[in-house]
Amino acid sequence: MSTVALHLHRSAKAAEGLSRIVAALAPGDSIKGKVRKAHELTGLSYSRTREIWYGRARRIDESELKAIEAAIPPDMESDLAYLRSLETRVAAMRQELEGLRSRMEGAALDRP
């Protein structure tokens, strides 16, 4: 792999890693807040984390990439997928309840 290709690969992998770290931990935060959270969790300096986040890092050392990968919670992806599936199921149940409530109210009005 050429030096340029290696840098692009590491850069993309590092930026994705930072995004994954803060996806569930700081969902409503500003970008600045997310960068700060990623900085705290990786141990990289704030300015270095910001440069990686925005894709402006001229190089990314293997140690930096390892620090980012180590900060990614191992089961976050499965937890997020499970949470999304629960939210979908709850939304479907709410619709079903509303339909049932409407039918029951309609039936009560039809009675003499």
Description:
Helix 1 packs parallel to helix 4. The termini are far apart. The radius of gyration is 23 Å and the shape is rod-shaped. It has five helices and no strands. It is an all-alpha fold.
Strand and helix layout:
Layout (H helix, E strand, L loop, with lengths): L2 H21 L7 H12 L3 H8 L8 H10 L4 H35 L2
Helix pairs in contact: 1-2, 1-4, 2-3
Strand content: under 5%
Helical amount: over 70%
Question: What sort of overall outline do the alpha carbons produce when their principal axes are compared?
Answer: rod-shaped
Mean pLDDT: 82
How many helical stretches? 5
Features:
112 residues; mainly alpha; 5 helices; 77% helix; rod-shaped
